[in-house]
Amino acid sequence: MARATSHGAAPAATTNTNHRRRHGSSLSPSPAGGTSRKNSTEEATGLLSPGAGADAEDDEDDSHPGEPDSRTPTAVVAHGRARPPKSSLPSAFMNMANSIIGAGIIGQPYAFRQAGLLSGTLLLVVLTFVVDWTICLIVINSKLSGASSFQGTVERCFGRTGLVAISVAQWAFAFGGMVAFGVIVGDSVPSVLRAVWPGLGEGGWAWGVDRRVVIGVFTVGVSYPLALYRDIAKLAKASTFALASMGVIVVTVVVQGMMVPMEQRGSLRDWRLLVVNDGIFQAIGVISFAFVCHHNSLLIYGSLEKPTIDRFSKVTHISTGVSMVACMLMALSGFLTFGDKTQGNVLNNFPADNTMVNIARLCFGLNMLTTLPLEAFVCREVKVNYYFPGEPFNMNLHLLFSTSLVFSAMVLSLITCDVGTVFDLIGGTSAAAMAYILPPLCYIKLTTRSWKTYMAWAVVAFGCTVMAMSMLQAVGKMIRGEGDVKQCY
């Protein structure tokens, strides 16, 4: 993810001129150094429609958002070395779907409990469409602005303030995910080891199921080597495994949910659990956390063998559609089984000695180990492109950033079981900013008024509401003394 330069308006104008020559668009530099778009924006925005395939295939040139080219400051990074490996459509789907179907899917039954069955179902469907649209907007905005990254697009539109906002949002969300994944590994794998080897936690071998040992060994042995890759395309096989493991988890909840004895099931007698409950904004936060992959979108777009908006839109539609089906299955199976007893991690509702559920717990923990490197990619790119824009690739810097990110996230995972309201606040604000606020705001800035801009304003208003409510809820928990950070030793 390469950041556009902020060295004055001249580079932006040059980039936009080249972009205009290749695509025949009517982009022109604005007085503020940004860009304005005439009615021909349909050339780009129309590519979201099914009939736009032909135009989209013509939209390809030597450079694409998400990868360095000869006209962007990050060209130096790619100059003099072989072109990075590319992803096929299935591989790109694996990377995007894995980025979506991660830790958040396990909380979907809890989201339905908070929102109510009817409201939860509607929210999941509507938010899927909104997220799908804003993911595609990131690539469209990148082409309209002439920038090669999400960061660069926001900077072109809103200057240094926009750059700081998107950099903080991307980094905080991705790094928070890395820490959360480590915590999940520590919560999942030790219980599986105890179930497989009942005597392992006794005597001189007790350290073998110690939470800190498990997190350290698995993070260093699995996540760290994957995070050292320079090209996201190389994570396709890991993403395939991760998706397969999430399939096991969904099937486990569906199958084992039907076998839960009545005394362990929850109640659905309260009408609010069936229609609209009072935790609807919490549900929006949980669902949004599960679906936000905007910080990976241009990396995935740039990894395509033939990067066009049409092909990327196809990957996005399939990925979000499959993710919605998986989340819906998980949510309905878990919530209809456990009702008002549904926990944030639905696997915790099942007995500790359930063999199939323990396999699912193991898969969930391993899935987090392969998802963590995707977030490390984002954190590393944000830091490199913010602090060292235009610098040639430096292996020492690459190793330093990769190592510091993985090990700092691991340390936080080691000392904390529940980051509580701190991560609630960071997750709510950064996810809302990346998914519902910044992409449509950039689109509004880059286009003329149309029905699509009104839709964009509606999404911005929704995102601001979600952000405000998340902050109010976090502050309320702090005042009431809820959600205190719990230490694990």
From TrEMBL:
UniProtKB keywords: Amino-acid transport, Membrane, Transmembrane, Transmembrane helix, Transport
Residue segments, region Disordered: 1-89
Compartments it resides in: Membrane
Principal localisation: membrane
Membrane disposition: Multi-pass membrane protein
Pfam families in the cross-refs: Aa_trans (PF01490)
GO cellular component, one term: endoplasmic reticulum
Domain Amino acid transporter transmembrane positions: 86-473
Membrane-spanning segments: 92-111, 117-140, 161-185, 205-229, 241-260, 280-304, 316-339, 359-378, 399-416, 422-442, 454-475
Coiled-coil portions: none
Molecular function in Gene Ontology: L-amino acid transmembrane transporter activity
Entry's family note: Belongs to the amino acid/polyamine transporter 2 family.
Stated name of the protein: Amino acid transporter transmembrane domain-containing protein
Species: Staphylotrichum longicolle
